[in-house]
């Protein structure tokens, strides 16, 4: 049944699936050709289907903005997740659970406080696991404490 865009209740999630599939494949192919790891962000769509398209079904190497998103994708078999939001002490226990559960869980650090938080909980990591850290470096916009 065809529906006109003007008849849809908003807000709603609408996309051209053929275009999305083509764009996702082009990005995967480009990164493969250049020998780069693609780590698509899921914050716009927040859907399992789109994340599967972005990863070509591999369920690996995604980026999320919240722990709720990380836990959602982990519960659906994704096993390499980057939390691209600065870590704080009140999030550590949930991060530790993800470190235990996933093959790879990476945390984002934008300043010394984040590093201190991780260091303070280093002993809580499971055996043979370490914090996998991505450090944001300021590129002139004042978004990071690391310059």
From TrEMBL:
Gene Ontology MF terms in the entry: D-serine ammonia-lyase activity
InterPro entries with a match to the protein in the record: D-amino_acid_metab_enzyme, PLP-binding_barrel
Protein name: Alanine racemase N-terminal domain-containing protein
BP GO terms, sorted: D-serine catabolic process
Protein source organism: Elysia crispata
């Amino acid at each position: 049944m065809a529906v006109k865009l003007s008849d849809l209740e908003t807000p709603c999630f609408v996309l051209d699936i053929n275009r999305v599939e083509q764009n996702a494949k082009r990005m995967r192919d480009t990164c493969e050709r250049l020998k780069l790891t693609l780590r698509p962000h899921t914050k716009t769509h927040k859907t399992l289907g789109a994340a599967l398209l972005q990863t070509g079904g591999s369920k690996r190497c995604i980026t999320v903005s919240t722990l709720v998103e990380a836990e959602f994708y982990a519960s659906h078999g994704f096993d390499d997740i980057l939390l691209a939001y600065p870590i704080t002490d009140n999030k550590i226990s949930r991060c530790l659970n993800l470190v235990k559960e996933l093959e790879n869980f990476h945390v984002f650090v934008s300043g010394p406080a984040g590093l201190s938080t991780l260091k303070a909980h280093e002993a809580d990591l499971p055996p043979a696991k370490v914090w996998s850290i991505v450090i944001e470096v300021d590129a002139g916009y004042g978004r990071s404490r690391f310059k």
